[in-house]
Structure formats: C-alpha cells, structure tokens
Amino acid sequence: MSRKTAVVTGASRGIGLAIARRLLAAGWQVFGLSRSEGPVEEIPWIPCDVSVPESVNQALESACMQAGRLDLLVCNAGMGISGAVEFTSEEDAELQIDVNLMGAVRCARKAASVMRKQGFGKIIFISSLAAIFPLPFQSLYSASKAGMNVFSDALGIELRPFGVQTCTVMLNDVRTDFTDSRKKTETGDGIYGGAIRASVEKMERSERNGMTPERAAEEVYRLAEKKKLPAHRIVGASNQLLGLLYRILPTDLMLSVIRGIYG
Questions:
Q1: Domain ranges for the chain
Q2: Which residues contact 144 (CB under 8 A, 6 or more apart)?
Q3: Are 69 and 118 in contact (CB under 8 A)?
Q4: CA-to-CA distance for 9 and 41, rounded, in angstroms?
Q5: Is 221 in the active site?
Q6: Separation CA 47–CA 50 (nearest Å)
Q7: Is 49 helix (H, G, I), strand (E, B) or coil?
C-alpha cells in the first residue's frame, strides 16, 4: 500500500514547515506548496501562489500525479495586515481576503474533486481564535478566519457523503516570523487616540511569547491520524477556556472584554 500523502500550503516556514516536518517524521509522504522552496530536502517542494487559481490547480495536480492519492490537505498559507479599516487601502483589503480565505477555498476546491473520487480524505484549515474573538485593527484578518471557519463547516456537510472530512484548527499566539511579516499601517493613529499602535503592539508581544510552531504541528498530526475529525479544534488548555467563554458569554459582554483589552 502506498504511503499516506499530505499536501501542506505555506510550508516553507513557520507553522506550515513544522506541520510538514511532523508528518514527514511520522512516515507520511509530504508535498510542500509555497512561493519559495523550504529547507527540508526530503520534502518535494512545488511552487504555488494560493492567490493564483492556475498555480493552485497545477501544484495540486502535480502532487496528486506523483503520489497517486491525497489523504490530507492542510490549508495553512496566509498573511496578515493591521490598521484601522477606514484607512486600509482597497488593495490591502482584497489581498488579505484573497490570500487567507480565497486561497484556502481554491486549494480545498481542487482537493475536494480528488478526494470525492477516491472516497476518502481530510482537509484541515489553519484558522485563528480571531475568528471568534474579533480583533480591532485586525478586522479584515479576523473576517478572513471567520469566513474560513464557516466555509469549512459548510464544505464538510457537502463532502460527508463521499467520506471526506473537514476541520478548522484555531490557534492563538504562535512564535513565528508571521509577526514581523505583518503589513502594518498606523495611519489615523492620532485620530484613534493611539489605539492602533497600542492594540497591535499588545498583540505582537503576545505572539512573541506564544506557543511554538511544533506544538501546533503536533495537534495537526494528531487530527490527521484520527478516524473522525471534529468540526473545530482549539489548541492549548488556556485557549480552550477562551473557547468555552465564547460559547457561554453574551456577545455584547464578550465584545466589551475585547474592547477593554485591545480597544
């Protein structure tokens, strides 16, 4: 029997690279999709820009042709912007949604066709607690992850009759270069009383002290090996407590708490 095969997007660094390495260590055949080649020689790297439909289609077709099967797709590729919505350019807003949400949609759509025909497969989306705890001055990032959660849920219903499962893994703070790569604008900070800079700086301090990418990767590996996927998985005990509070707190109270922290 051929080895289980996984495709991981955004796999050249950070969380995606950690996931690819963990699956490889467990004996999976792994294909890394990214715009630049990653550092692990044992992983076949396939150039892919998730914002370009043709690039996504060609990359997944190449991986499936080489492996002959697709057991797991991990939609991890993403980017972040920050700033007040009213001062965010149309270009940046579209880029945020296109990479994080539509990039995942493009990859999942192609994988769904393969998995439906073979009668099995898992699609795991790397989401964020920002999907349920919306972050001020990262509104579009939060929206992209909330959209990912809902998309995964609906897609899972569609594909269930064909033996294909979906799941979102909601992470909180993770120590990666994602923090330094965030595209930031502080335009209007004076108008907002310095809240833009203060909010983003607080978030970035938390990220720099967050969990390791390997911790997130371990959870993805465990899910990949499970017979049945949960709809959503929050990583970390303290983060799971936040998830519980989200379910039981009235929305207005939850937003008031977020406003007190980041507003």
A1: 5-262
A2: 78, 96, 97, 100, 101
A3: yes
A4: 17
A5: no
A6: 10
A7: coil
What are the tens digits of pLDDT across the range 72-105? 999 999 999 999 999 999 999 999 999 999 999 9
184, 87 in Cβ contact below 8 A? no
Q: Which CATH architecture has domain 5-262?
A: 3-Layer(aba) Sandwich (3.40)
Q: Both tokens of residue 184?
A: 């930031």
Q: Is 252 helix (H, G, I), strand (E, B) or coil?
A: helix
pLDDT tens per residue, range 117-131: 999 999 999 999 999
**Helix axes of 53-67 and 103-118: crossing angle, nearest 10 degrees:** 30
Nearest to 240 by CA among 175, 138, 179, 169: 169
Query: Which entry of 141, 192, 221, 262 is annotated as an active-site residue?
Result: 141
Are the C-beta atoms of residues 103 and 50 closer than 8 Å to each other? yes
Order of strands, edge to edge, in the sheet holding 5-9?
Answer: 45-47, 29-34, 5-9, 72-75, 121-128, 164-171, 232-234
pLDDT for res 1: 52
